[in-house]
Design a protein that fits this description.
The protein is of the alpha/beta class. It is 56% helix and 14% strand.
């Protein structure tokens, strides 16, 4: 180019060339900045759109998660919480804050649901729990990764995401936690009305030395076969002659087993008999459906014996139906702890001096 200009008699000086290249560089830089800004705006808009959709779904999920802890619904919500984290740095700050607040609310809802009810432990399979633990673990790793790179994510991580995901990992990998058992049977619809010393049990459970532990036992009761129920005892008592029901502290009190009541309820008080008969009739109307299942809370008395803490009326009603040929599924949460009347007065009939 320089030779061509020289041949035409219009040679450029070094300052001319410097100015030309400078102007070209500035122009290229300005155009590049404008394009980059435009591209950034497009990325920001797309990230906002994606996060808005996830916020909408997760907000809808919160109400459903409060009512239902189905494994598919729970995992879907956790997947959406994780998926949006990679989009957070690309979105506008208000959208980042809204999404992270929604994620925290979803995690708190799942933690409250799984941490206060045993229904998920009764309904979920082992594979469900394994998948749940995997999803939560990956979500926690993803959140921790982004917290190291974003102040906004770090703030929400410290404010609750760290704590809730750690608690969900514990719930998903540990046996039935005692605190969940306690919450289910003291705060929910199912209530243990026997005089358990919850404070003493909680203190022993916190020691984590195996003194207090829980197990879930699922039993399919075969029609007409009552032998599987022989080891269950009710916190109800009759006198030595069998003429009537008495209190546990009565000098002649004898514990009653549920199988003793299959054919004859006359030993029980009238109010208790009426309730059992009403439950039996209610269960009988459900026999043509998917079947009948019952969740029990029990206290281990030995390898093959247990005191039923909650579900006694229902178990008696279902035992009568099993005797008539109906299949029943029992889901039992068995508490193993010292057999001591200091923990439960009824245990005075079973403790070994």
């Amino acid at each position: 180019m320089d030779l061509f200009l020289w041949w035409r008699g219009e040679p450029w000086s070094w300052s001319d060339w410097a100015s030309s290249f400078g102007l070209g560089a500035v122009t290229t830089m300005v155009v590049g900045m404008l394009l980059a800004r435009r591209q950034g705006n497009i990325q920001e808009a797309l990230a906002d759109l994606e996060l808005t959709e996830k916020v909408a779904y997760l907000t809808f999920s919160v109400s459903r998660l409060r009512e239902d802890s189905a494994p598919e619904l729970t995992r879907r919500a956790l997947y959406d919480c994780r998926a949006g984290l990679s989009l957070v740095p690309l979105a506008r700050r208000p959208m980042q804050e809204e999404y992270l607040r929604t994620v925290s609310r979803v995690l708190e809802t799942i933690t409250d649901r799984l941490g206060s009810s045993l229904r998920s432990h009764a309904q979920w399979t082992r594979d469900d729990w394994s998948d749940f633990a995997s999803v939560v673990g990956t979500l926690r790793e993803t959140a921790a990764f982004h917290a190291r790179r974003s102040r906004i994510v770090a703030a929400h991580w410290a404010d609750g995401i760290d704590t809730t995901t750690r608690e969900l990992v514990r719930i998903g990998t540990a046996p039935v936690p005692f605190e969940v058992f306690k919450a289910h049977f003291t705060e929910g619809a199912d209530r243990i009305r026997t005089s358990l010393d919850w404070t003493a049990l909680s203190e022993m459970a916190r020691r984590d030395d195996g003194t207090v532990r829980l197990s879930m036992i699922s039993t399919e009761l075969t029609p007409y076969r009552l032998s599987d129920l022989e080891g269950y005892h009710a916190p109800w008592y009759r006198d030595a002659s069998g003429s009537g029901e008495v209190a546990y502290a009565h000098e002649d009190a004898v514990p009653i087993r549920h199988t003793e009541l299959v054919t004859d309820l006359s030993v029980l008080r009238g109010e208790r008999r009426s309730r059992i008969e009403a439950l039996r009739d209610q269960y009988a109307t459900r026999l043509d459906g998917p079947g009948v299942s019952l969740t029990l809370a029990t206290y281990a008395l030995g390898p093959d014996r247990a005191l039923v803490l909650d579900g006694n009326h229902r178990l008696t009603a279902l035992a009568q139906l099993v005797a008539k040929g109906c299949p029943v599924r029992l889901i039992e949460f068995r508490l193993t702890a010292p057999v001591s009347s200091a923990i439960l007065p009824d245990l005075i009939h079973y403790q070994v001096d």
